[in-house]
Each structure stands twice: as C-alpha cells, then as structure tokens.
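Deliverable D5.2: sample structural annotation.
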Amino acid sequence: MHSNSSLEAQPWPAHDLLQISGASDLVLPEPYPLWVEESLRRAPFVVVRRAAMVDGMIPVGVRGLLRKQRFAAYLAPGAILGRITPEQLVEARPAQARARSGQIPALKALEIIETKLAGFPFRWGPAGSIGFELATGLAAANPGSDLDLVIRVPERLPTAAAAALLASLSAAPCGVDVQLETPRGAVSLAEYARGEKPYLLRQSSGPGFVCDPWHPDPSATGYTLRRF
C-alpha cells in the first residue's frame, strides 16, 4: 500500500467516530488480537486517526476496554454505516452519561465547560474516552480520565484569546487537554497560549515545528518542518 498526499484535506477529520458492521470491515496490516473483535462487537465504532489515507482508505483505530488496548487499521469509505463528530456530542448526551457525571469528573467537567463556552464562536466537542462513551453509551471513562476537547479554529486565534480560553477551563474538576484544529493540523491550546514559538503541529504526514499553525510553510515561517 502507498500513502497519498491528501493530508488535512481528507474528508475524515481525526477524532470522528465511524460506525461499521464489525472487524471484518477493517483492512489490517497485521493479524489483530482477540480483544479487537470483542470490542467491535460491544460497540462497532472506530476513531479516525491523524494519518495519511492509504489507497483511498481511512486510517482508523479500535479502542479496547484497557488504555493499552489500541489497534491501528484502515477502512474503506463504503464500509461506513454512520459518522459522529465531536461537536455533535455536545448537543446529544445520553441520560446514562448525565447520570455518571457524579462519578466521572471528566463528564462533570464537560457540563461546566459547556456553560463557559456558551456563545463561543468556534465549533468544539469532546474526544477520547469521554467522546467514545457519549457516542456509544458504554462506560469508557473512569474517575481518573482527563477530558479531551477538539476546537475547530479555521482562522488564526490571537495568543491572548487562547490564554483567556485556557484560563476559563481551569475550574474543571479534572485535567483538560484541548487541541486546536486548524486547516493544517492540530496544536495544543496550552502550548499555543504560552506564545513561545515554534509550536508542535500534528499533521497527517507527521508532527513538526512551525511558527504559525495556520500557515506552516517552512519558507514563510523561517523554521524547517521537522519530522519525528
């Protein structure tokens, strides 16, 4: 298989959850462990990975019950039965998740942050274990889980505004990890808010350092994009 050059222009953003029939839909680079099939039987969803598409197939990952249980695979677009984005999960939280907010600080944090971000101009939503739990109804998060958030920021965000946004999240009862999704990739809100260049930008082609996460052309920034 060979990777294409679609990069962030691919129509399947990282963190989107895709519903499939089961493990047989996946294109696998290697034999998968037993837990993969069991996990997809419980909740037939895979998460889009931040990687290049390969032969027209979407890079996806399977989540297991344990943190160490993550498996990378590929998926043909024709096998997708449904799609859930992080922003959709803000509006439709199942009753089970609301009931667990007293046990899971990250779920409570989502309620608090939703209030603080009322009227926020950019689209946003949960990812990670909280996003998976909200999408599937399965108890994927635990009391020690952080809250992972994705914020779509199509235009450059002033660092002062980023710092104010970061400060507004400090009241959350758990760790909050926010990724700013720009047209070119993703940058950590905490890192960007400090204003200390260069920033680590995560792209489908791999992570590298840039001065401007919105326009990371090395010739424009003066920094060479470094691959890891």
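Annotation notes: The first strand starts at residue 17 and ends at 19. DSSP finds eight helices and twelve strands in the chain.
The annotation will be released with the project's public dataset once the embargo ends.
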